[in-house]
Amino acid sequence: MAKRLFDAVLSGCGLVVLLPLLLLIAVWIKLDSPGPVFFRQERVGRAGRSFWIHKFRTMRHAAGGLPLTVGTDDRVTRAGVFLRRHKLDELPQLIDVLVGDMSLVGPRPEVPRYVAHYPAALKAQALAVRPGITDPVSLAHLDEAALLAQAQDPEREYIERILPAKVQAAVAYAQRASLASDCAVLVRTLRTLLQRPSP
Fold it and tell me: What are the transmembrane regions (predicted)?
């Protein structure tokens, strides 16, 4: 209950405070490439329930392809390169937090395509909490696209090596997370992103 109240208050305040920035980003996206401002995608949330995640669009509209970003993906727009680098494309997920589909901190939600590869013994535990905008695993995989670019088969690399580690981390989070640890992750996230150089 305390975590949900924490999420609702901070996400609501964040949307109000960041409104000018959100509007500027929206204008930039519209000027940079044709298509909608927002990108919506089905993700799997708490207890396996699907929801639609919101992001600022960073790829060419209707670009298609795998739900993974590999290296310097040519689907990514000029504005998208900067937004992704600084994780500004994730800001609309404050809406998802406010309505209760997500939390500020928690395992990142996967698309159904990859949740299908969760080990049966760990799936329920990995999906026991609301997914989050940030978590320690996300911070450790900030350059995941570059890592996948080195693989001969990026999707296979993701499913066989990266995804199992993420599932294990999701289970560990569900078992040990607290409001204090969430606050520590939020502080670490802000510090990491503020110190991250531009592309």
Answer: 7-29
